[in-house]
Design goal:
Blueprint (H helix, E strand, L loop, with lengths): L8 H15 L5 H12 L3 H13 L4 E5 L2 E5 L2 H39 L4 H30 L1 H36 L3 H8 L11
Antiparallel strand pairs: 1-2
Helix pairs in contact: 1-3, 2-3
């Protein structure tokens, strides 16, 4: 009989974050060290390390209220984190494209200073043809992908899920604010300030 494999660190991360999603509540570390082993199979000794890794990756929020430190996370948090990552990658891509354009300009300038030869002209012609073929193949691939029923259906499902999540987690945020006001006697404006909630936060008409 084979020995049962323990959870990998990434599996522990996923399970602990799922615990937050399911409970929709705030927790202290000692509370998580009691709940995680029972409900997610994460050893109590590893909870602190796993939790810190999620905080470091901005997937779990944390705030000190009084003398206590609380942790929480909602699916919308993960969505916003991915959105910010996409924005960062978009900026990085733009930066690389600028560097490529600069390099191409230098190459063009250098090529103008070189003496033309038949061999060089043939190589340049072959390169241009291959680049054109590559662009055409990429366009065809993109066109086929957009027409793929599975891709379209997947996008439709993701859109519907996103719409439902917006309303659901707007409800959750208002519930959390009410819970904080009731439990800690904190003014609503102070709650908004602590958790970075905009003053005009409200339901969005999708």
């Amino acid at each position: 009989m084979s020995k049962k494999r323990g959870l990998s660190f990434e599996e522990k991360r996923q399970r602990l974050q799922q615990l937050f999603f399911e409970k929709k509540d705030f927790f202290q570390l000692k509370e998580l060290e009691k709940i995680a082993p029972k409900e997610k199979g994460i050893t109590s000794m590893s909870v602190k390390e796993v939790l810190q890794s999620l905080v470091d990756d901005n997937l779990v929020d944390t705030e000190k209220i009084g003398t206590s430190v609380y942790f929480w996370s909602y699916p919308s948090k993960a969505m916003h984190t991915r959105k910010r990552k996409i924005e960062d990658l978009t900026v990085a891509i733009a930066d690389y494209e600028q560097k490529v354009a600069s390099a191409e300009k230098k190459i063009k300038q250098a090529s103008m200073e070189r003496k033309d030869t038949d061999e060089r002209d043939k190589l340049l012609q072959t390169l241009a043809e291959k680049e054109k073929e590559c662009r055409e193949m990429e366009q065809d691939l993109q066109r086929y992908k957009e027409c793929d029923p599975e891709v379209l259906e997947g996008l439709k499902n993701e859109t519907n899920m996103a719409k439902e999540a917006v309303s659901r987690w707007t409800d959750n945020i208002f519930s959390v604010k009410y819970w904080c006001k009731s439990k800690f006697s904190i003014e609503e404006k102070e709650i908004d300030k602590v958790f970075g909630i905009p003053e005009d936060f409200d339901y969005v008409d999708l």
